[in-house]
Amino acid sequence: MSLPPLPPPPPFPFRRTAGAPGDEPPPPARRPPLAQKHAVYADTHARAAYTPGYSRFVAWMKIVLPLIAVMLLAMVAAWPYLQRKDNLFRLGFSALTMSDTETSGMVNVRYVGTDGKGQPFSVTADLARSSDKSAAVIDLELPKADITLKDGSWVALTADTGRYLRAKGVLDLKGKVNVFHDSGYELKTDAAELNLKQGTVVSHTTVRGQGPIGEIRSQGMTLFDKGKTIVFTGKTYLTLYPGPRKGPRVSGGTQQ
Question: Where are its TM segments located (predicted)?
């Protein structure tokens, strides 16, 4: 009895022989350009984050850059003041020297000092001149004196001309002398003597004044304690206004 024939074996998978065309492995899939850029940036940032030098640089920049910005803002704010040309300057009369010519002088003079009680004062003038080099006597044009008290109040004096006697510390004022007190009083006279060391003002000419409490006229006056007390001398006429009274203490004369 004959057996049936065996079925043929299944075919083996097809394999390419070496050297045959097309046997190279397929190329890897390319990463999209945007994703590739993000990956490169992430790798670089990750490497830099672990670099000690880079960390120190970032820390310094966090301090230096704000400081530079503040300095630039300060320079911008101060620039107008740096560019301003102001002829007004401080000048101590004790250090003031003049040439031999009588007409020579200095313009926009400012003298700042303190009295015996440590209270500040200042004297300014449009023009200062002296006839000798020692400047013992200094003539001033349009002088102005400002006296400030420790309690914050002040007295100001102005005149057409003035003469400063350096040895005595006295300023003689002449021509439309005005005395202003910060409490609202104004006194006018033709001549007055201001003692910068003692803080007194003396006038022997007719005085006219007005303020919150009324008006006054006298033949002279003396201011003590930088204007805290005013004594009117000679015949004095006072007209009072109704209402509260505030200001320096006033005494003297005949009340009207």
Answer: 63-82
* Total tally of structural domains belonging to the chain: 1
Q: Does the pTM of the predicted model rise above 0.90? A: no
Which structural domain range is residue 171 located in?
A: 89-255
DSSP H or E segment with residue 90:
strand 89-90
Question: In a 3-state reduction of DSSP, which class is residue 89?
Answer: strand
CA dihedral angle for residue 175, residue 153, residue 201, residue 159, rounded to 10 degrees: -10
Q: Is position 181 within any domain?
A: yes
Kindly list the distances between the CA atom of residue 31 and the CA atoms of 35, 36, 51, 173, 230, in Å, as whole numbers in the listed order: 7, 6, 28, 94, 97
CA–CA separation, 140 vs 109, rounded Å?
9
CA 7 centroid distance within chain: 112
- Asked whether 188 and 208 are in contact (CB, 8 A), the reply is yes
119-166 residue pLDDT tens: 777 888 888 887 666 677 888 999 998 887 777 778 888 999 998 888
Give which of 205, 200, 155, 146 is closest to 180, Cα–Cα: 155
CATH, residue 228: 2.60.450.10
